[in-house]
Design brief:
Chain A is α/β, with parallel strands linked by helices and 427 residues long. Chain A has 10 helices and 19 strands. The longest helix of chain A is centred in the middle third of the chain and has 16 residues, at 200-215. Classes of the chains: A alpha/beta (427), B mainly alpha (285). At the A-B interface, helix 1, helix 2, helix 3, strand 6 and helix 4 of A face strand 1, helix 2, helix 5 and helix 12 of B.
């Protein structure tokens, strides 16, 4: 059978631009504009450069001679680490980017969901949004109207047909985007990380729908980092790294090879100070009460957490969090978290518990410090990749229940732990 | 699944052929409506007067200029047409150009997020950017009628010439739209990189107004320099043609043709530039 999508020797080169400074303001406008004008009016022929391998050394080769074909009804997973070229490939197929070299033929209409909440105008109604998406895929108006109920049903938005999208429940845009993509009845569906959001039920629905349209003859190209989902729904997998196809084959075979490689850390570029900082970030620091809800202050009589969100995006990075507690110039203590490490990009929530009856009625400052090192090049000292300070106050709302209940004067001291007393008479 | 014939899309490194472009323009024609609506709403959103700005914006300078050149420093008009009628007859089409230049440089930036996510012929964006201008034109024509009627009531003479020559307003409108697109399309692309373009183009339009016979009759320009005005300023012919269509008077067809020739040349160059840039725009969004 004739392939639905045929990709032959496709390359894509991005000029890597440095920001220049114009009167002290950093801008990448000039190089970007120069690049565009060169391609538009200059004699510079990028595709010839690519063919002769004469691209500039600085350029980023996002895709390098990629060739594959997708048959009708196939669900093909595209995997690879961040920056491997997966999204570039989908964007070229969706004609948002044009290739630097090569030729692609697509039989049929394409709907795509390249970024979450695709092309949706928040001020227009749900129905109009479906119309726009359908028009963008080149689907005739009457087909869109016919597909409307199915789409609304899938997205769970039957009651919101004439509601502006911005007034719909949050998260709706993604559900609607997915439902529209699946429900419009185009021949090719391109999905980039659709399953990265939504709750378990939504993901399950997505997976079932993708399988169902695959069975009805629609070709799906599906980028995901979720190997479990890839295993469940894809019939074939393409593994891309550095813009080249590493392996194409049956799902299990390729996914196994990829995960083995990923865990060995060989796929990663060498860690530098910069990439370490980027792959290990202190996302947020917060003060939580005993019930883990964010608060602005703690009370003496209840405990709480000094809590942080830490994002670790490389498997070869080990990180831990120090929390220092300060009062004015006095350093009260340092608490160090256990080590954090993860084979996949993960956001950790880690917090140190502050017990009740411990801090005094004072102003404190918690200093969060994220330290990390990569074992690949095992530097001697870990690098600080994130620092944040959080000022908070401890107040005494239940004076009768606090350690100060028997005391009429002011509460003094940096901390006020509940201590016990011993009495004995000395003869 | 639908049973309509499946189109074959060919994606290659070289820019699309003219045929493929025209086909995709036809295929995406319905999208023009959405883009136009978005662009019109964009300005009205979050404002108190909303849609009324479409009328207020062109009328405020018009009132000032009419006041200046009737009461402060009266200007002689050919055929002693009331100045307000004289001014408005050229201003309706001049304003098309000026207003389009206020919208066009921003349109690409406005639609950036959609362009990042989906394919459609990018040229639809600047074309849709003409929508608010066309609304403004219609309203200004209404304002012109009001001015004419009040002058008629005041002087007892109808200051305009009713007749088939009024149809010449259409080529004048077309010329204004063409020149606006010719300037607007490349600036819309450049405005993706530099915001300054928007400010620069607005000042340019303001200055350009006084290089065009809008507030003054073309006879103010000495005869020996008049050809230069027409040759380098397509808006001169547009304004003259629109004035001739509405109030009649002298018009030099050789100059008007020269001016339209310049217009067509600039327009074609601009369209070719935009079409070629379109292919590479994705990298920059």
């Amino acid at each position: 059978m004739e392939p639905r999508i045929s990709v032959r020797n496709v390359s894509k080169v991005f000029p890597r631009r440095k920001a220049t400074r114009v009167k002290g303001i950093a801008t990448d406008g000039w190089p970007a504009l120069r690049d565009l004008l060169q391609k538009t009016i200059g004699s510079h022929e990028p595709q010839q450069d690519a063919r002769r391998g004469r691209a500039h050394r600085n350029d980023l080769r996002a895709l390098d001679n990629v060739t594959f074909a997708v048959a009708p009804g196939e669900i093909v997973g595209i995997i690879g680490r961040n920056g491997a070229g997966k999204s570039t490939l989908l964007k070229i197929l969706a004609r948002v980017l044009s290739p630097t070299a090569g030729r692609i033929t697509v039989q049929g209409r394409v709907v795509s969901m390249l970024e979450l909440g695709i092309g949706f105008a928040p001020d227009l109604t749900v129905r109009q949004n479906i119309q726009i998406q359908g028009r963008l895929a080149g689907i005739p108006g009457k087909h869109i109207v016919a597909a409307e109920d199915r789409i609304l049903n899938l997205a769970g938005l039957l009651d919101f047909r004439e509601t502006p999208l911005r007034l719909c429940p949050s998260g709706t845009a993604v559900q609607l985007g997915f439902a529209t993509m699946i429900g419009l009845g185009a021949e090719v569906v391109l999905a980039d990380e659709v399953l990265a959001v939504g709750d378990a039920a939504f993901r399950k629905m997505c997976e079932e729908q993708v399988e169902a349209v695959g069975a009805s003859g629609v070709s799906v190209l599906f980028v995901s980092h979720d190997m479990a989902a890839i295993r469940r729904i894809c019939s074939r997998v393409i593994w891309i790294d550095h813009g080249r196809i590493v392996q194409i084959g049956s799902t299990d075979e390729v996914v196994n090879a990829y995960t083995t490689e990923l865990l060995s850390g060989r796929l990663l570029p060498p860690l530098t100070g910069e990439s370490l900082a980027a792959s290990c970030r202190l996302v947020a620091s917060r003060l939580l009460d005993e019930d883990h809800s964010p608060v602005g202050a703690l009370t003496i009589t209840d405990g709480g957490y000094l809590d942080a969100l830490v994002r670790i995006s490389r498997p070869d990075v080990t990180a831990w969090l120090d929390v220092e507690l300060w009062h004015d110039e006095h350093h009260l203590f340092t608490a160090t978290s256990p080590q954090m490490q993860s084979p996949q990009a993960t956001t950790f929530r880690t917090g140190v518990h502050i017990p009740a009856d411990f801090l005094n009625e004072q102003q404190y400052q918690a200093r969060f410090r994220l330290r990390a090192f990569g074992y690949a090049d095992a530097p001697d000292a870990p690098t600080i990749t994130g620092e944040e300070r959080l000022d908070f106050r401890v107040i005494n709302t239940h004076r009768d229940r606090s350690v100060w209940s028997d005391w009429t004067g002011t509460s003094k001291g940096l901390i006020s732990p509940r201590l016990t007393w011993q009495f004995s008479r000395v003869q | 699944m639908s049973s309509s014939p499946q189109p074959t899309i060919v994606i290659e490194a070289r820019p699309d052929t003219i045929g493929a472009r025209l086909r995709s323009l036809w295929q995406y024609r319905a999208f023009l409506g959405f883009l136009s609506k978005e662009i019109v709403m964009r300005r009205a959103r979050g404002t108190l007067l909303g849609f009324w700005w479409v009328l207020l914006r062109p009328l405020m300078p018009a009132v000032t200029l009419i006041f200046t050149f009737t009461s402060v420093k009266p200007v002689d008009t050919p055929g002693n047409v009331p100045y307000s009628v004289f001014f408005m007859s050229g201003y309706v089409t001049w304003r098309v150009f000026q207003s389009a230049l206020q919208y066009l440089p921003r349109t690409m930036t406005w639609m950036q997020s959609i362009m990042r996510r989906a394919y459609f012929p990018r040229v639809l964006v600047p074309v849709a950017g003409l929508a608010p201008t066309l609304i403004e034109f219609a309203l200004l024509c209404g304002a012109f009628v009001v001015v004419v009627i009040s002058a008629w009531w005041h002087d007892g003479v109808l200051p305009i010439r009713l007749g088939p020559q009024m149809l010449a307003l259409l080529p004048a409108l077309l010329g204004a739209l063409m020149f606006a697109l010719a300037i607007g399309m490349p600036t819309a692309v450049i405005a993706l990189f530099f915001r300054d373009v928007r400010y620069a183009i607005r000042s340019f339009a303001n200055v350009f107004m006084f290089l065009t016979p809008v507030v003054y009759p073309v006879t103010f320009i000495p005869e020996q320099y008049r050809w230069a005005m027409y040759a380098f300023n397509p808006m001169a012919a547009v304004v003259e043609l629109s004035r001739w269509a509405l109030i009649g008077g002298q018009i030099d067809w050789r100059y008007v043709s020269l001016s339209f020739l310049t217009n067509v040349i600039v327009f074609v160059v601009s369209v070719v530039f935009f079409m070629r840039a379109e292919t590479h725009l994705g990298d920059q969004l």
